[in-house]
Amino acid sequence: MESRKTQLWVGIFVVLGVLALSFIALRAASGTMTTSGETYTLYAKFDNIGSLKVRSPVKVGGVVVGRVTDISLAGDYYEPLVEMSISKEYDEFSETSSVSVLTSGLLGEQYLGLQPGFIDDSVSMLEDGDSITDTKSALVLENLIGQFLFSQGND
Amino acid sequence: MSQFFENVGRRVLDSVAGIGFALAMFVSAIIGKPQPRKSWPLFIKQMYVVGVLSMVIIIVSGLFIGMVLGLQGYTILVDYGAEQSLGPMVALSLLRELGPVVTGLLFAGRAGSALTAEIGLMKATEQLSSLEMMAVDPLRRVIAPRFWAGLISMPLLALMFSAVGIYGGYLVGSGWLGVDEGAFWSVMQSAVDWQDDLLNGVIKSIVFAFVVTWIALYKGYRAVPTSAGISAATTSTVVTASLAVLGLDFILTAIMFGG
Question: In this protein, which residues make up the domain named Mce/MlaD (chain A) (predicted)?
Fold first, then answer.
């Protein structure tokens, strides 16, 4: 009898532990997106990536479709090259799509905004390993202020 | 002068012998032909003693720590108009640090000390020697089920601690202080990664479980079999295990989040 009660309590204990895990996994952490599903890789070259980091989200109209997987310098002029993995669910972006480094909120994290391009017969779709050529760099506050002061001086 | 070197030498030899004994104890307790029919009931019994009986203190302290985090975080974040970041703040501090660490400390105090005292008293009353007389290996019969019970139950306790703590933070932040409920959860979800945060927290708690249980069992097994010896061993378990948890936490954090 004693052993039955012990077993019951141990069972409750383990079930509670599993429930806690699933509560955290489902309620507190979602990020299974693109870390588990099928993805494909795209590249984009920027002049300046600001404070973009590996694992920063790639968003289309605010919806996360992928993540930045690698940042390196490439080419003769050492331009920042961003590698991102996009969920296979969204594999119909045309070549004319553009990416820009954006900031969420005034002081928020930086992310990549992907703007799908137009589609007609003359453009093909982006596939695994392709590069997006149309990129807009991050806004760097110091450059912005510099340009502002410069333009003020011209008046 | 030679006295000094003699002292140093004895200390070093003692500690090396201690580490070696702990390792040998661990290996012979864990490795060996599994005997599920014999050891399963022992294991269940220890899960009850080590895990179930620690559940109340873990859940209550988790709730309070989560609520305090919610309250403290809110008063700071509201100055910057960033009170919607309360969710990630509570969740990340619990999952990454407080969950494993505080559970480790509480577990050392609640279950570790009990393990040491129990095994120390078994030794003092010569129950361990009697087992050996009956050709029962005390390492397999006494140490192994307690070790596995500690190793399995502490990560579960840490998960409960984090879950209850997040809920406590939600109660205070959203229910009392008026952080928007949807923002609380959604900002948390976008900030918490199950691999970076949840998995690393679980790995931490498994490491702490291993260290705390092992230290408790070793101290009990090596206790001087007198009342004073058992009390010293129990104290030393709590102190050593707590220090080991805090020290290892720094190393693990540096490895996991430092790079």
Answer: 39-117
Mark out the alpha helices in B31-98 (DSSP H runs). Answer: 36-46, 55-77, 86-92
Residue of B163, B222, B207, B179 whose CA lies nearest to B17: B222
CB contact under 8 A, A28 and B189: yes
pLDDT tens per residue, chain A (155 residues)? 567 888 888 889 999 999 988 888 887 776 544 455 788 899 998 888 887 877 778 888 888 888 888 889 988 888 899 998 888 888 888 888 899 988 876 666 788 898 888 888 778 888 888 888 888 888 777 888 888 888 887 66
Q: State how far the Cα of B218 lies from the Cα of B29, in Å rounded to an integer.
A: 11
- Which residues of chain B neighbour A21 with C-beta distances below 8 Å? 159, 163
- Residues on chain B touching A29 (C-beta within 8 angstroms): 91, 95, 189, 192-194, 197-198
Interface contact B91, partner A, CB < 8 A: yes
Instruction: Using DSSP, state whether A100 is helix, strand or coil.
Output: strand
Question: Could you tell me which chain A residue has the CA closest to the CA of B50?
Answer: A10
Indicate yes or no: CB of A13 within 8 angstroms of CB of B41: no
Helix (H) or strand (E) holding A40: strand A39-45
Per domain, the residue ranges of chain A are 1-30, 39-140
Cross-chain residue pair A20–B185, CB shorter than 8 Å: no
pTM here? 0.72
- What pLDDT does B181 receive? 77
- HSE (CB half, 13 Å, CA atoms) of B149? 30
Q: Decide if B8 touches A, using CB distance below 8 A.
A: no
Between helices B144-170 and B113-124, what is the axis angle to 10°? 160
Helices (H) and strands (E) in chain B, counts: 12, 0
Q: Which of B42, B52, B60 to mutate to test the interface with A (most CBs of A within 10 A)?
A: B52
Tell me which H or E stretch contains B83. Answer: none
**Chain A: nearest CA to B184, how far in angstroms?**
10
Q: Residue B144, class by beta-carbon neighbours within 10 Å (0-12 exposed, 13-18 middle, 19+ buried)?
A: buried
Q: What is this model's ipTM?
A: 0.79
Backbone angles phi, psi at A100, to 5 degrees: -140, 150
